[in-house]
From TrEMBL:
<comment type="pathway">
    <text>Purine metabolism; IMP biosynthesis via de novo pathway; N(2)-formyl-N(1)-(5-phospho-D-ribosyl)glycinamide from N(1)-(5-phospho-D-ribosyl)glycinamide (10-formyl THF route): step 1/1.</text>
</comment>
<dbReference type="InterPro" id="IPR001555">
    <property type="entry name" value="GART_AS"/>
</dbReference>
<dbReference type="InterPro" id="IPR036477">
    <property type="entry name" value="Formyl_transf_N_sf"/>
</dbReference>
<feature type="binding site">
    <location>
        <position position="64"/>
    </location>
    <ligand>
        <name>(6R)-10-formyltetrahydrofolate</name>
    </ligand>
</feature>
<feature type="site" description="Raises pKa of active site His">
    <location>
        <position position="144"/>
    </location>
</feature>
<comment type="similarity">
    <text>Belongs to the GART family.</text>
</comment>
<dbReference type="InterPro" id="IPR002376">
    <property type="entry name" value="Formyl_transf_N"/>
</dbReference>
<comment type="function">
    <text>Catalyzes the transfer of a formyl group from 10-formyltetrahydrofolate to 5-phospho-ribosyl-glycinamide (GAR), producing 5-phospho-ribosyl-N-formylglycinamide (FGAR) and tetrahydrofolate.</text>
</comment>
<protein>
    <recommendedName>
        <fullName>Phosphoribosylglycinamide formyltransferase</fullName>
        <ecNumber>2.1.2.2</ecNumber>
    </recommendedName>
</protein>
<keyword id="KW-0808">Transferase</keyword>
<keyword id="KW-0658">Purine biosynthesis</keyword>
<feature type="binding site">
    <location>
        <position position="106"/>
    </location>
    <ligand>
        <name>(6R)-10-formyltetrahydrofolate</name>
    </ligand>
</feature>
<feature type="binding site">
    <location>
        <begin position="11"/>
        <end position="13"/>
    </location>
    <ligand>
        <name>N(1)-(5-phospho-beta-D-ribosyl)glycinamide</name>
    </ligand>
</feature>
<dbReference type="Pfam" id="PF00551">
    <property type="entry name" value="Formyl_trans_N"/>
</dbReference>
<feature type="active site" description="Proton donor">
    <location>
        <position position="108"/>
    </location>
</feature>
<feature type="domain" description="Formyl transferase N-terminal">
    <location>
        <begin position="1"/>
        <end position="180"/>
    </location>
</feature>
<dbReference type="InterPro" id="IPR004607">
    <property type="entry name" value="GART"/>
</dbReference>
Length: 201
């Protein structure tokens, strides 16, 4: 299976996918990595792994529609079976999301439906939550609102700061994102009637 990964930053989740692929455990290949930030370190990770890279910069387009149209053109040039958002920090238009419906995944650093959007770790700490985590979900038009496929939980300990919690969650992200991607590549996972369907579970 052909996977295109979209990033905006460090790309540690991308790295987890690349490592899994190079170990022959992903059931697919990361054919291209596209960033909306030219300085994203994830682009370097992609180059080191031999994947194609592209930058679609926010500032080069007059509006969201134009940006998304350019992004879609580049993605579709790689004929992906799956588009994986991995720290891609940009809201996508409904038309874009519909185009990849059922074949676009995202990883979000919270136990959805809690804490959609930004600053999830800070919000979990401030709420006094004893647990927190990450979710892999299909992308739908509702931001961070698509059907959840798999979650990982971590504790929040007394006195933890945002960075400690973020690091603890990130370790789990690196475990669950490749796993769900593999399920998708193996044809064991799909979205049907707006729900996640997982074979044999
Ligand atoms: C991750 O926490 C991801 O869940 C969130 O942004 C962060 C990206 O980290 N959406 P990285 O770029 O994969 O290291």
């Amino acid at each position: 299976k052909r996977i295109v990964v979209l990033i905006s930053g460090s790309g540690s989740n991308l790295q987890a996918l690349l490592d899994c692929a190079s170990a022959g455990q992903l059931g697919g290949e990361v054919v291209a990595v596209i960033s909306n930030k030219a300085e994203a370190y994830g682009l370097e990770r992609a180059r080191l792994a031999g994947a194609a890279t592209a930058v679609v910069a926010n500032g080069d387009y007059p509006d969201r529609e134009a940006f998304d149209a350019a992004l879609m053109d580049i993605i579709d040039g790689y004929q992906p079976d799956l588009v994986a958002l991995a720290g891609f920090m940009r809201i996508l238009t409904p038309g874009f999301v519909r185009h990849y419906q059922g074949r676009m995944l995202n990883i979000h650093p919270s136990l959805l439906p809690k804490y959609q959007g930004l600053h999830t770790h800070r919000r979990a700490i401030e709420a006094g939550d004893g647990e927190h985590g990450a979710s892999v979900h299909f992308v739908t038009e509702e931001l961070d609102g698509g059907p959840v496929i798999l979650q990982a939980r971590v504790p929040i300990f007394e006195g933890d700061d945002e960075a400690q919690v973020a690091a603890r969650v990130l370790v789990q992200e690196h475990a669950i994102y490749p796993l769900v991607t593999r399920w998708f590549c193996e044809g064991r996972l799909a979205m049907q009637d707006g729900k996640a369907w997982l074979d044999g579970h």
